[in-house]
Amino acid sequence: MTAWQAFIGVALGCTAAGGARAQQADEQALPEIVVTAQKRTSTADKTPISITAVSGEDLQDRGIADFRTLAAATPGMSMKTNGPGQTEFEMRGMTSGGGNSPTVGFYLDDVPLTAPAQAQNGKVVIDPSLYDLNRVEVLRGPQGTLYGSGSMGGTVRLITNAPDTAAFEGSAQAILSGTSSGGFNHDENVMLNVPLIKDELALRLVASQASTSGWIDRIVAANFPEPGNGGLTRGNVAAAPVIEDHKGSNAETLKGARVALTWKPTDRLTVTPYVFYQRTTQEGPSAFDSDPGTQAHYQPFSIAEPYADTITVSNLTVNYRFDRVDVTSVTSRWHRLSTQVQDGSENFQNPLDGFNVAYATPSGFYGASGTGPIHGYELDPSDQFSQELRAASTGDGPLQWVTGVFFSDFHSNWQLFTDFPNPVAFGSPIANVWTLDEPTNIRQSALFGEATYAITERLKLTGGLRWYSYRNMLDMRFSGFGSPLGTNVPTVTHVVQSNGGLNPKVSLSFDADRDVMFYATAARGFRPGGGNQPLPAIACIQNQLVQLGYASGVPPASYKADSLWSYEVGEKARFLNGSVHLNTSVFFENWKDIQLEELPCNYPMFDNANSAHIYGGEVELRAALGRNLVAAASAGFTHAQLAETAHGFKAGDRLPDVPPFTASVNLSYHTPLTERYELVARAENVYTGTRVDLTFPGGFPNTQTPLPGYDLTNIRVGIAADAGWSATLFANNVFDKRASLENTVQLTLANAAFNRVATNQPLTIGIDASYRF
């Protein structure tokens, strides 16, 4: 044992106790995970950045079928979620609530899937099935050098298994379960790998299907109660007579497939095309009304709220190995279409909705002679073409480098429609409440490079630089009763933004010995600016804009890019012959010109409002406590507050959606039952701290709404056979906790009387059976 190992071992209370224990620890060495986070092959423990890497095998052993579950257990990571395919991911306090661009990059292999979005539910990414995944890499901190815009907080990479040209293999999985307050669920997955020409050509097919029962009731109430307290208090909907009760209104279905081909015509050339397709549908949102707080949504009219998300990704990766250089070309195109419908009837009956409608009796507005049902419909088609060409050094020389070029062309045409069934009741000459149509085109180009030089055998210096340029063009057309003109003639706003710059990075790493490494990094990240949706020309909005500091009462048409500098120091250590792994890091971030959301009269508007100083750290520990027992624990701390006062935000305000503490702990146990069978068991608990939410503040200016912290526990017990099959009993959310995940965005208007609160799946018990051949 070296001095460094002894020091860390003492700090943990895990000192060595003689040769016999060291020999046992050697047999318990934890496996290392190969990663390509720096676009060169390495291992997670030897890569001098803060990275969480999870193998595909570990994902299956833990029963993790979607990235949202894994993100909750990853230190330093937070999220805003409205449900499947409707999640924004954030890291290290980099809230993405403002602006139209994400703060975390999301990649399927080398295909960038994050893109700016005007959609009401935010910068959401797809929620792909994780079956037959090779690994997941979560890179914390700015990754602007290698991954560009949208990665100022970090980057997520889902790495699929490529076709194997050497062996025929396959696998199948069936998961059957039942959910408390829900019903029967079933998931089926299958993989088949076929070498068409041995060692030269192979095909890999993966298919997934999942049906998840709902647990939210959609209740249509008769004689819908009037609000009280000037519209700030909802009527007693729980006591109203029930006309319809749609149980399990948030049931979900997923269908997906991946087809990949690997062709190796020579030892040097590898060509891998693949197509990924997935469609997710949900009958309604996984959200309940904060008033009365039961697992239900109450409506005056029966309006279903379906959601659908479909994506097709086509990719071609070509790699050629020269004697000392690998050259890789990644060409991809994806098409995505999201649609959703939401009920807005009650919102438009509220006297605070900005239209100054006098509230009538329930039989007036909500009756047959009243306004009638009102709903919002959102259509969000988008597509992106991207091309990356890079070269990376190979070999063991003192200089290792990677360089390349990148281009992307993103298009979207987000649209939102809301109509009055009875415009006369609102004093409107037209049925169109509002129609928003926002075609967008963003083109980005970049040159990047990163090099690592071994100053000595132990000391390495890394420097990186990315030159970027982007052009953002938005046409925003706004018509309807709530538009500035108040007619079907649209108001058109044309926004063009062009910008460019440099993202530098410098890092120094020191190998104290073969098992202990220290590193320090300074890096810059940025996020493109964008344009605002036009706001209705109503007095409430104009008055509150003046109070927010906009003297003209007119909202800004656009906002500029924001950027940050991040400073980080960390260590990675293995000791007791690799049976214990400890990774820690601390960071400080100076974030300038933050794109934040302001809410005049609860209408969304973005601007560069403030700067923030963010600091914190993460720790990850894995330890083999014996030949059969492995423990893992992680924790993250993030102090994220505004440093300035502007536009209604005050210095010291917490950044929205950022929990100060996250933590997880899990134990896995396995022991032979016979020569052929093994018992496997696992228990895991994940904690997320309190957050604040600005979605529907219910006050002015920019009042923060708290969301309580929560923790969820999962357990699994099963048998694995050497014949390739396993059967596992599991219970997810053992204590049946109903967490408040987010106050969701509504498509029509924010309602001052209540929020719609996204929540998690209740207690679910089932069996997971799989077979490999």
Provide tags for this entry:
mainly beta, 773 residues, 8 helices, 41 strands, disordered N terminus, 22-stranded antiparallel barrel
Uncertain residue segments: 1-26, 350-369
Q: In percent terms, what proportion of residues is strand? A: over 45%
Characterize the main sheet. 22 strands, antiparallel, barrel
What is the alpha-carbon Rg in Å? 27 Å
- What general form does the structure show? globular
Helix content: under 10%
> How far from one another are the termini?
42 Å
Number of strands: 41
Give your account of this protein's structure.
- By secondary structure, the chain is mainly beta.
- The chain is 7% helix and 53% strand.
- It is built from 8 helices and 41 strands.
- The protein has a 22-stranded antiparallel beta barrel. It has a 5-stranded mixed sheet with strand order 3-8-9-6-7.
- A hairpin with a 4-residue loop joins strand 33 (661-672) and strand 34 (677-688).
- The two termini are 42 Å apart.
Topology diagram in text:
Blueprint: H1 3-12, H2 19-27, E1 34-35, E2 42-43, E3 51-55, H3 56-62, H4 67-72, E4 77-81, E5 87-91, E6 104-108, E7 111-112, E8 133-140, H5 144-147, E9 154-160, E10 169-179, E11 184-197, E12 201-212, E13 217-221, E14 242-246, E15 252-263, E16 269-282, E17 287-289, E18 296-299, E19 307-321, E20 325-343, H6 345-348, H7 362-365, E21 375-393, E22 399-419, E23 432-454, E24 459-479, E25 491-513, E26 516-527, E27 530-531, H8 539-547, E28 558-559, E29 562-575, E30 580-598, E31 605-624, E32 629-642, E33 661-672, E34 677-688, E35 691-693, E36 705-707, E37 710-721, E38 725-732, E39 742-743, E40 756-758, E41 764-772
Parallel strand pairs: 6-9, 13-18
Antiparallel strand pairs: 1-2, 3-8, 4-5, 6-7, 8-9, 10-11, 10-41, 11-12, 12-15, 13-14, 15-16, 16-19, 17-40, 19-20, 20-21, 21-22, 22-23, 23-24, 24-25, 25-26, 26-29, 27-28, 29-30, 30-31, 31-32, 32-33, 33-34, 34-37, 35-36, 37-38, 38-41, 39-40
